[in-house]
Amino acid sequence: MRGIAVRLMALVLGAGLLAGVAWAGDGAGDGPPVRGGMLDLRAGLPDGALLALDGEWLAAWGRLAGAESGACFPDPAGGCPAGDWTAAHLPGIWNGQPLPGGGVMGSQGAATYRLRILLPADGAVHTLQVPLVKSASRVWLNGEPVAAAGVPAPSAAGEVAQTATRFVTLPAGLRVADIAIELSNHFHHEGGIGASLLLARGDGLRHDWTVRLLVSSGVALSLLLLAAYLTAFARCGERSTYYLMSGLLTASAVRMLCTSELLTTLFPRVDAALAYRLEYLPIYLFWPIYFHALDHLLPGCLHRRVGQGMDLLGGAGALFVLLAEPAVFTRFRDVASLLLGLSILYFVLRIAAAARRRHHGAVLLGLGAMLFMLAVVHDAMMYAHLFDGVDLVPFGVLGFLFMHALILGRRVMRAFDEVRNLSAELTCLNEGLERQVQDRTRELRRQSAIVESVLRQAKERAEADAALKSRFLAHLSHEVRTPLNAVLGMVRLMQRSPAAADAERLRVIDGAGRHLVGLLDEVLELSRLEANRLTLNPEPSDAAGLVRDAVALFRPAAAEKGLDIAVTITGAVAPWYRLDRRRLHQILLNLLSNAVKFTRQGGVLVTLDAVPAPVPGREERLLLSVADSGPGVPDSEKKAIFNAFTRVEGVDRLHGSGLGLAIVRGLAVAMGGSVQVSDRPGGGALFTLALPVHLALPPPKSMVGGMVNGVVGAAPAPSALDILVVEDAEENRAVLRAFLAPAGHRLVEAESGEAALRLLEDRRFDVILMDIRLPGMSGVEASRRIRALPDEAAALTPIIAVTANASSGDEVEYRAAGIDDILPKPLDPDHLSAVLARHTPARNSGGAAVPRLAESIAPDRLARLLGLFAATCREQRAALAEADSPARVASIAHRLKGSAGTYGYPALSAAAAALEAAAGRGGPPPAALLRAVDAELEAALASLEVRTRTPAGG
Asked: CA–CA separation, 913 vs 898, rounded Å?
């Protein structure tokens, strides 16, 4: 392969040299000499012969005198004075040209050359070729302008530069041709005519020039096509090499367009400065670009510092060409050619070194470099005016880059072979890999299905647990509060004048009911803590008094177990702190309950201490500790015991639900503090609460007097109010009437939300007591519609929800509907009075507290309430027998559930709740549940008949 390439390159090189010599030697033949501005051609020229009009022309320096041609020819012997016409040799460059009056001609200026030709008598047509002139020229024939390249002028202001070859036809029959050539140069660093003017018989000069342009365009097109070819190969690898070679080819094609006059022939109006910049830029760009291309082709053969120097010089030269005027940067043409020649010589030497090391492609690269170097030397000699010829650099570049294209093509073919082999191997590997992937995919799918099933089941269980917890809290609130409302209400009514034997029992019942309400409140408190909806009420509080009162509550229970409860309050504790006394009391009760519950012998020590603020005015820290002598808490459980529903392993599950410590931690964090557990020296557990507190001033005496166990007593009741009671159950409305009547409140009752809205159209109320579970429109929807009323007074009426559904989630819904406050069932008359006072401040009279219902209603009034409930039972029993839809059954069961709990019939309430749940699922309620409710109604009616006949005191 290498021998074939060498022979091919030798053939190309020889053909190129022969063509160059032939083209260069295709010059003008010998002919009559030009002397004194005269040329005698009367003997004629042979057909096809070229005559170079070299010799002595007449010249007029410093002026444009073409119009004088055709007039008297300067010849003293012929009777025409010479004037300022002197002999000058053509071709000739102005730079250093001696002038007749002394001095020399510079590169800038104007002049006129004149020649008289005596033509043969045969009347043949002759053609004169005027070479490109720097910078503008105009040809005159017998006093008439016949051709021009640009516009010559004595000064730079009037000159229009254009470098182009022009042809002048000497018409048939012309015997004397007086030719004048006007020149001006204010553009290039060289002035004058540097090439021979040619004369030929016929139109052969134009034909030769056309052929030369066609050859040049073919070479330029070949360079551009080769650049496109390499650019297309750049996608196959070694992109930078292909792009660099494509850049060299493109730059060479552009220079070919400029030096061959293709650019000015195709675009006559192109700016001469732009044409020269495009011609000179490739000279400076060639060597740095080729250095990087060759570095990719022959890695390790070039010197990096040489490349850096080429980059610096080439970049500076290109910038110089772009910014400087043509008259400046053309002055360094020979320097640029020298640098180009030296760079090619360096490349040849490095390629030769690579060839000695048998580097792939080095021989072809060396032949291409030699060809290009010969072309550069040829053109450098031509530009130095040693001879006239054709610009061979584009041909040298074409051969030079053709060799590189061969190298790159061979690399591409080798890469294709490697790709084909790799593709075959990759196909085999892919087939094996696909089988492995398929097997692995099937296994992963099987495992994914198992994991997905497990996760789905876990998710379903978690969602079911969450839903169960929410339903548990809502149902717990509703199911417990509804019966308690009746229990506590009736107990309070019976306490008005109880018999001496029943007084203690009634007190126990009342205390148990209050304890049950407290337990329910703690469950809901945990729900609020988990939902981050806890509201604190900091106020001046006696921390020491709170501790003593809480300890007093547990002394009887501790005494029953033989335990002692001691209290230590240090002197650092201030009399008053600003804190939420109810939350602190709740924390202490939970800690004391656990301490007494889990301690079998020994005792409990409660300590209250304070850490003063480091800076006056800053927060102090209140430290409350409860130490017991019980079994203690294992280290592994010290963090877990503060989680909800968590108990210490090994402890009897009957001792607590696992909520107390979770509530303690949640309250402590909400108050900005913390709670920790540690081992007590000598055995047992030590719980320590740390709270940030501020010192406070003592509260007013009226507030201090109203405190009970650290909690403020009932607020003063408002004066008589106009109250709208929205409640569907008659028995619950009766309880509200009994609680509110002693204070003189005026009640208007509505059994549905729609009825309440109709009432609000005609009159105004001070407050609205709204049940939530109503037939038809719910209490929540009724509240929304009230807030949307156009009458602002009606829309802003305070709304208080009276409901058994009082969980944290329900509270969010109620607040969003515009409800101002919530009264949970069972109702407490003191709480009811306080809420009314809070939402009717303008009507607050500050009078005495509302007496409890049990202390204000006569026995005959209580009997009437029981009779009202009995009528309700008979009415709902008949309606249940005639109910024709699950929704109607659910509505009846809901009313019975709440009313039965209120009046002390838990069995009937439970049966109605079960029926409501079954009917709420949409299907026909089970007959067994219907029979159970009917049986409980019958039993309740029998009991009510006995109770209404029994005197209240008995």
From this structure: 9
Residue appearing with tokens 């019976």: 494
The topology under which CATH files domain 722-852 is Rossmann fold (3.40.50)
Q: What pLDDT sits at residue 473?
A: 60
773 closest CA partner among 798, 749, 803, 750: 803
Residues 901, 909: Cα–Cα separation, whole Å: 6
Q: Are 242 and 233 in contact (CB under 8 A)?
A: yes
How far apart (Å, rounded) are the C-alpha atoms in residues 373 and 16?
Answer: 13
Two tokens, residue 117:
């030709």
Q: Nearest-CA neighbor of 845 among 858, 832, 836?
A: 836
Please give, one letter per residue, the 3-state secondary structure of 672-718: CCEEEEEECCCCCEEEEEEEEEEECCCCCHHHHHCEECCEECCCCCC
Which CATH code for domain 31-202?
A: 2.60.120.260
Q: Where along the chain do its domains lie?
A: 31-202, 543-689, 722-852, 860-949
- In sequence order, what are the beta bridge partners of 323? none
Are 772 and 806 in contact, with CB atoms under 8 Å apart? no
- Which residue carries 């020269």 as its tokens? 276
Closest CA to 185 of 401, 330, 2: 330
Distance from C-alpha of 580 to C-alpha of 671, rounded to nearest angstrom: 8
Residue with more model confidence, 63 or 518: 63
The DSSP bridge pattern shows strands 767-770 and 799-803 to be parallel
Q: Which candidate, 56, 185, 201, places its Cα nearest to that of 132?
A: 185
Query: Cα–Cα distance between 514 and 830 in angstroms, integer?
Result: 13
Decide if 782 contacts 726 (C-beta within 8 A): yes
3-state secondary structure 80-95: ECCCCCEEEEECEECC
Convert the pLDDT of each residue in 381-396 to its tens digit.
666 666 566 666 666 6
List the CATH code of the domain at 860-949.
1.20.120
- Three-class DSSP category at 756: helix
pLDDT 10s digits, 14-47:
444 444 444 444 445 556 788 989 999 988 887 7
Block residue for tokens 């202490």: 588
520 with 476: CB under 8 angstroms? yes
Q: Which token pair is 879?
A: 């309606």
* 543-689: CATH class: alpha beta
| Angstrom distance (rounded) from CA 324 to CA 326 | 7
Work out the burial of residue 705: count CB atoms within 10 Å of its CB; fewer than 13 is exposed, 13-18 middle, 19 or more buried.
Answer: exposed
Alpha helices in 36-87 (DSSP H): none
What is the residue whose two structure tokens read 């830029």? 281
- With vertex at residue 50, the alpha carbon angle to CA 49 and CA 52, rounded to the nearest 5 degrees, is 150
Give the phi and the psi of residue 568 in degrees, each rounded to 5: -125, 120
Identify the pLDDT of residue 385.
60
